[in-house]
Amino acid sequence: MSINHLGLLGLVAIALLTIVLWLGRRWREQQYDLRGKTILITGGSRGLGLVMARQLVAAGARLAICARDEAELERAKTELVQQGGEILTLICDVTHQTQVEQMVQQVNEHFGAIDILINNAGTDIVGPLENLTMQDYDDLMQLHFWAPLYTTQAVLPGMRDRRAGRIVNISSVGGKVASPHMVAYCASKFALTGLSAGLHIELAQAGIVVTTVCPGLIYTGVNDHALFKGQRSKEYTWFSISESLPIISASPEKVARTAIAGMRRGAAEVVVPLPILLMARFYGLFPGFMTSLLSWGSRLLPGPIAGGEKRAFGRDSHSLWAPSWLTYLSDRAARRNNELPVQEPKSAPEAEPVGSREQ
Predict the structure, then answer these.
(1) FRET pair for 79, CA 20 to 30 Å: which of 6, 171, 179, 287?
(2) Torsion over CA of 185, 95, 334 and 84, rounded to 10 degrees?
(3) Of residues 150, 185, 236, 283, which has the active-site annotation?
């Protein structure tokens, strides 16, 4: 047989294997029916959490969504009920274990057992290392590590008794690849990624599947709710424009679909979109080279300033370039996904500790 024939057979074999694997994934996803399932989503009132809620309602699930802001929750509930969903909203600061336990009890009393937990609540603190404080690290660890652990511990007894349940932890590519000017954020997401992977390994024998979702940049419209330090307007500008770049940034609808599909087939990890998956794999193979590139890239970002430790919300950090046509995708998403700032408690002139802000 000629070399050309062998090469052709190899290509055919690869194509067939790809098709078989794809069909297998689709079959596993279809085997897990979401109709009638009770799902708790933290940070479900806006952004990615709200987009996932829309898709889960369309699939026939019953939803409990929590957040700190009552008005945001009511707007989200109104939309989801109009979509035909059975919705329970709860005001909860997920960084407080007692509140989390009370919330889970309320969901159990209203709907019965929680079949799926989606830990989505999160926020960004963006700024140079020199302007970060210990409070920044503590707040993000509370929100991105301890809060998912609190909710997980609260739902585990029921899932263990039934020997069934699914948990989805929305981490980040920042939990796999460190990013400049997001050190506290990345540290907390690395912790969540490790926690989630460990839970997947140990809970499998109890019939519970844990999926870690690591998206890259998403244009959810969260920019005005994120927190900025240092040269805040400049930090807001690069962050906002980056989150609106086509190809590099993904739509929340795509991330939500991919995350839900991964949960349904029982995937251990989902990294989305494809360029981010490739970057994460490349980092795993060549960490020294990637960190060198990122180190050079950090030199292009705004430097620290005296007094830059003070936090400001994105809505108070606008610049000539952001918002602008360069941030169109994110600005449009803000209007769609309940992200537009309104005159409510979050409009305080100074940014308070993070609490359970949603991503």
Answers:
(1) 171
(2) 140
(3) 185
- What percent of the chain lies above the pLDDT cut of 90? 85
d(CA 101, CA 201): 24
Element (H, E) at 50: helix 47-58
pTM: 0.90
Any idea of the CA torsion for 46, 48, 51, 52, to the nearest 10 degrees? -120
149, pLDDT greater than 60: yes
**What pLDDT score was predicted for residue 246?**
87
CB 183 within 8 A of CB 215: no
The closest alpha carbon to 322, from 265, 238, 253, belongs to 238
How far, in Å, CA of 208 to CA of 164, rounded? 5
- The answer to whether residue 236 is catalytic is no
Give the type of residue at 106: Q
Radius of gyration of the chain (CA): 21
Q: Report which secondary-structure segment, H or E, holds 271.
A: strand 269-272
Percent of residues, the chain, with pLDDT higher than 70: 88
pLDDT at residue 356 above 70? Answer: no
The tokens describing 168, both together, are: 């989805």
Q: Which CA distances in Å does 190 have to 80, 131, 184, 205, 285?
A: 32, 21, 10, 24, 18
Coil, helix or strand at residue 119: strand
Size of the chain in residues: 359
Q: Which residues contact 302 (CB under 8 A, 6 or more apart)?
A: 128, 230, 231, 234, 235, 238
Cα–Cα distance measured from residue 276 to residue 215, given in angstroms and rounded to the nearest whole number: 8
8 Å CB contact between 188 and 145: yes
Does CATH number 3.40.50.720 belong to domain 35-347? yes
Q: How confident is the model at residue 248 (pLDDT cuts 50, 70, 90)?
A: confident
Q: Coil, strand or helix: which one is 14? A: helix
Domain ranges of the chain: 35-347
Cβ neighbourhood burial of 18 (10 Å; 0-12, 13-18, 19+): exposed
- CA 122 to chain centroid, in Å, comes to 7
CA distance 349 to 131: 20
